[in-house]
User: Fold this.
Amino acid sequence: MSKHGLWTVIVPDKNIIKKSEDFTPENPGVAKIEDDAFWSQSKFNNISVIQFTDDNVDNDQVEYTDTSPNGSYDESVLGNFRTEFINRFDTQHLIDIQNLWDNDNQTVEDPAATETDGFREETPEEKIARLGPRPTSYTSA
Assistant:
């Protein structure tokens, strides 16, 4: 790999990795896209990794599974990067953070909860006060 983009797509692993905005190269966001119909498109047959920066300076890079030299990202062949990859990342990331929110439940001490040894599940209001409202959208810039 000779280039590291702000976005990395690892085709064999079905991962789209974001390394900008609320993520960094040291702490990237990873979305596994379980969509076999998408990944089985013939345009991905010989692609291992896509490094995408979209900075109008470097060529965004495609790494192949065979011995072909790295190539440039060709939108006319691979499609618009936002439509093909960023929107899919955003959709999956929203699902992931909603699942984290949904599953982050606590029990709280409550002496009045005598049937449960003085503990009870937190109320929806207590959960929102602790975590903020449940995420309803996520959009990359």
Q: What stands out?
A: Residues 7-79 form one domain. The helical segments are 36-39, 75-78, 81-103, 124-131. The CA atoms of residues 43 and 92 lie 22 Å apart.
